Amino acid sequence: MTDDCHSVGRGGGATRSNSSVADSSGRRSVPFDGAEFLTDMKRMSAIGATAGGGVQRLAASKEDGEVRDWVARWLREHDFTIRVDAIGNLYGVHEWRPGAPYVVCGSHLDSQPLGGQLDGAYGVLAAAHAADRLRRQVVASGETPMYNIAVADWTNEEGARFQPSLLGSSVYARQMTADEALALVDGDGISLREALAGIGYLGSHDVPWPPAAYAEVHIEQGHGLEEAGIPIGLVSTNWAAYKYEIEVIGEQSHTGPTPMDERKDALLGAAHLIIAARTLADELAPEVLHTSVARVLTHPNSPNTVTSHATLFLELRSPDVDVLGAAEKLFFEAADEVQRSVEVKLIYRQATKRDVLHLDRRGVELARLSAEAIGLASMEVGTVAGQDAIAVAGVTQSVLVFVPSTIGHNEREHASDADLVNGVDVLTEIVTRMCHGELIDSEEDGAAE
Amino acid sequence: MTDDCHSVGRGGGATRSNSSVADSSGRRSVPFDGAEFLTDMKRMSAIGATAGGGVQRLAASKEDGEVRDWVARWLREHDFTIRVDAIGNLYGVHEWRPGAPYVVCGSHLDSQPLGGQLDGAYGVLAAAHAADRLRRQVVASGETPMYNIAVADWTNEEGARFQPSLLGSSVYARQMTADEALALVDGDGISLREALAGIGYLGSHDVPWPPAAYAEVHIEQGHGLEEAGIPIGLVSTNWAAYKYEIEVIGEQSHTGPTPMDERKDALLGAAHLIIAARTLADELAPEVLHTSVARVLTHPNSPNTVTSHATLFLELRSPDVDVLGAAEKLFFEAADEVQRSVEVKLIYRQATKRDVLHLDRRGVELARLSAEAIGLASMEVGTVAGQDAIAVAGVTQSVLVFVPSTIGHNEREHASDADLVNGVDVLTEIVTRMCHGELIDSEEDGAAE
Fold first, then answer.
1. Which domains does chain A show, CATH number per domain?
2. How open is the CA angle B151-B153-B157, to the nearest 5 degrees?
3. What are the tens digits of pLDDT across the range B290-301?
């Protein structure tokens, strides 16, 4: 591999092992090594690796601790200062102007159970490489940016171990307090506070604040980019999501002698609700309504005792709140009927009520210009899932770009090397422009202050 | 309370604090103290007591160990020798004729999660009191019985923590080996061997063998006796039961972006199967077909990841194997349709295939005569649920009697004091007759040898 390749890859086809790209201002001079990034990605993916080719690094687990340690070491070795805040968010900070706001870039290192290598982890490593490239450019060019930079690993994005999801980024965005988040418990009754302390990531450092802007690259986990043959997705909207915890209350009795007509079976009630949720999407509009129940807890969960309690985690997602409202109404009607027919009681707790979010147009435009500057085609896309960038959008201009990948939350999750390297290159361009103050409206600086 | 009350209570109305009853041979002379039994029952129920008035003493748990210790102490204090066998069955043995077969009486101390005070524990304490009454009678009368006596607490009858149920009694009845049973693991991956060792009940003593006969008293957990106003049920049949573990295999993916028509949702498949099981009973014959799914395990059980694996524990029970066969066939047909429509795969593992069991008529007759001798009305009943007496019936004449109680596997499980004392009295009469060789056909002695 050489360091003198200056050609620019386009689309998802070619693998670019090295690239050095220049934006319109000619700011770049340091060659970027895509192969080095891919090698680091492989090293990182060995932590918590599963037999099926994925990773399992549940939030604040031993494996999450190990991958955090690995990333922290990498950042220290590349001249970043490590900070860990009260909710365990891990930052690598590099300051050019003490006291100036921060451009923050990052994603999350936690995974689903038997999750993929890329979901979140790719974004954190991409942010580390992008920030380090900028750091080296600044050394080479001598041109000091307006803003400092921070690489972030946000705690418990997945929401697999602790609910809700987007926890660390939501605390950063001041949508909930660290104390509220730390008090949450997993399925075994272990609090996030205990779990973070257990891996040495219950911190007390100041967060990089105020944010000047935020940038994140993530795999798409859908078909949009692949089908269009476009390497970069510019996320402009996030689907609305209503999420409920529904408790189904029946009555514990013996599955043997208890007459069928006397049973109040909470698991039977839960089964009807799971099907009702699916039926909504099938009958209303599966293209613009995604529904699911994917977590269920039952008591006593004994083969020969009728279930007394079942808790379901229901998600309804749509790009149209009117569709969501209609779906919610129909679900409640179906659930009322289940209450009557199965003789169970239902208790609803709304865990998430997320409206459709339109990301700041100036950020979308900045991302588009960045991709264009390095010769990559891009298109606007929506994101169905929440991402840390969506939470952080509440306090600053937030940019989210996607690279092509199809299935998500699966060990077989995959993106091509070329697409992964493209994503790092675009992110580098975006954070470089952000740190130099491009397209950031001064009114927006530290917006949440 | 006095010791000189010799009247005999009839039916479920009167509480008999003391009773001394004589069978036709005039063998009895020791007064029986019902109040003492009820006091012991209260003491025992304090172990693992729950806020809702029940107990939680899962098999081989700390609480199971505590209640075993309590019963073992009681037995030692009443001149019984303690033995613990390879599967953790706890015996209190009293020998009059070394080398002679044993009349065994007992039940189980393990409970369901949030179970009732009486299910199993009542039968063990009743057996301890009945055996001790006989022991005292023998001392008073000087008439040495033909057979020795053993009180038994059978390990893991419930099948709540370790599947299948009836584990200790099935090992005693040589239907499975101790090694097979000890290798079973609970939902947390802890083996029965480890769990028993943890509470000090992984034994190596000889079992009381050969059995001359077996007797057990249990609460009915149904409406038959209560509705008939009869205090003693003579169990003559046990419903057949087919039990399956069904694995539903889908594909893990993201509940957000994954298009609805690409999902292979194992939990959705499971929901259809749960409803299919219930529909069978409703449509075929709910009086003679009881169906249930009461335990479900899912993976990854994360709110935002489509379920890849769900395991269901299905039970089909009927007093008629033809009904059961028809139900099983219809279930498989419905399940095939679920496989197609939800795009999941199903794997079946049959855990239990129990035919209708007719208990030995001579035992039913012995129980009827015993109730009659002490002035209690009785009626024949069937048992839907399996009991240890059903497993032991495979190796010896086994007698099972019920006392009235309605709801089972529930903290609110209840029987009147009078009915509980009646049950102890009948059991005393039964084991007395058995130990003196009454109604035991000599061909049946040590039948399984």
1. 18-238+356-444 (3.40.630.10), 240-354 (3.30.70.360)
2. 140
3. 999 999 999 999
